[in-house]
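Our platform keeps sequence and structure together, in a single record for each protein. Nothing more is needed to write down the fold, since each code stands for a local backbone conformation. An entry from our holdings is shown next, in its original layout:
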Amino acid sequence: MKVVALVSGGKDSCYVMMKCIQYGHEIVALANLLPVDDSVDELDSYMYQTVGHQIIVSYAECMNLPLFRRRIRGSSRHQKLSYQMTPDDEVEDMFVLLSEVKRQIPSITAVSSGAIASDYQRLRVESICSRLGLVSLAFLWKQDQTSLLQEMIANGIKAILVKVAAIGLDPSKHLGKDLAFMEPHLLKLKELYGSNVCGEGGEYETLTLDCPLFTRARIVLDEFEVKLHSPDSIAPVGVLHPTVFHLEKKGNADSSSLEEEPGLVFEVQGDGPNPPESTCQLDNGIADVVGQTRTRVNLSKTGKDNTFSICCWLEDSSESSTGLKEDLETVLTEIESQLSKHGVSWQNVLYIHLYISDMSEFAVANETYVRFITQEKCPFGVPSRSTIELPLVQAGLGKAYVEATLHKGVLHMAGQLGLDPPTMNLRNEGAVAELNQALTNSEAIAEAFRCSISSSAILFVVFCSERTKQSERNQLHEQFVSFLDLAKSSRRVANVIDSIFLYILVPDLPKSALVEVKPVLYVEEDEKTDDETRQGQLGEGDYSCWGYKPEKWHQDCLQTRVIDGKICLNVLSISAEVMRKLDEPSGDEEEQLKRVSRFCVNLLNKTLSENSFSWQDTTSLRIHFSTSLGVSVERLSDIFETAFKVLNEMSGGGVAFNGLKEPIFNLVPVLGAGNTSASLDNIITCELFSLRS
């Protein structure tokens, strides 16, 4: 990735640039924030290091890179841990700065920062990156500080102390001293007082004068002044104010060129873009498109507060749609309207399935998506997301299809690809290697929530690209189970949920990946997990009005998990063989689908009832159907709606639809599905998730 590096002059921001290059990224620009007044060394800032800012201008020459600088106009107005866009906050200066960098260098996709332990700083950088559609790279995050300090020194970071503010550090003795010289003393202070050896507790700050990235020159500090801010007898505070410095050429660099070149340094001014206003204009501009396009909204709502799923797609849009961008704008606008009608917004959405017709247009889809679902609209974090290519056009749909999920009690993890975290590149050894990496990434995320995918996962949905070789596909499930078994044995967890696996065959995935894993975890703490697999006996009376009799094999089609009496997950699989068993000798294809729909609806209804759940507890019902059926979404929707209406009438009305006009289910066209990766021959797969408070 092409990276703009946030540089304060400190050792951390310089060393993280070295890590970026080590992992295959390219530093293409530098960005720095400094005080309005050049004579001021330090601001009262929770966010930025500014001591030594007078020297940062030389970094452009030392690295031969453009340096973008902005003077800090804001202050620390929003001081809560999770940042929300706040006018006149100092974080907004970073937004304006990076916005301009991105405008001038559109190829930039990532931002590096030297965050090690401060959630306050890291979350603010991530917030800005989210708003700008950039990736935050913080390779030093949570590293052991003793090892990290030794690593920096060993790898050529030449830095001096420019601020001290801790017991055991004396401004008159230690300011201006080299980091390598200070290392033994810093380690001693850690032993004596528990100090942070990298200065993460504010003990000290540094200024880098040389490092391997300074290919043209090093900085030589000729003269400086020590300014005492606090004469405290225990922990005096002082800063170093540089007064005279020069550049010393390296290698074949021309010393005559080592003067400040205005062409490499850019001062960023202005207030920057106004996201709320532009978003409003965007919505108004789309309104006409929405009004002219035929849409169909699927809404499932339990009748409880903020617990439902909304699904929206376009039908018969081949004539009215001019492309993916327009279709997605229409769909997102319609969902936003539906959310508003129910008194909620994007900030209440926990998970989004973004289905598109062509993965080669991912960049277009992502750019459109992030204009709608922004950090401003989701101050506590944007929803997790999976982006999948589906045969939408083949199924008679438009080019975009979105499902938004709103419910609590579970962790909907974003779809995980087999990306190596430092390089952000896919594992190139094939599908099995991608799966292992995706599971490793999923486990790391789960650990942040103090759980494990091996013990807390209710469901694993695994999307497999049709480009995956059958020989590799055959190995995926076995490898998946082996990974979980190993994780279980290493953690020794008492209460383990018996996960359900659902493999779905799709045309393509982001980055042309072969596998994407979407774990759904139960993360409620301090409660005993009661994991049950219930498949009750089926009574003939339950089927008398549906046109078929119960058989023992019916229960083999259904997997059910009940967790703590609160969550009920059902995955019902209908293969071609099951369809043949349900069919009558004289039945045509239409009648066959009607019988299958009635079978699915009744079996799910019976299972809910047996486990003391009802349709009012439903949060989502996805019906994945294979395009090999050769039936349109509209026709299949009518067939399942009829089955639900029959159930509604049998139960006295109002049960299946919860008083809503929209269907309770979402139809999702796929190439195939199955309970194992080796056999993806399901014609219809029902995924029913119910939640009871």
Q: What stands out?
A: The mean pLDDT is 85.
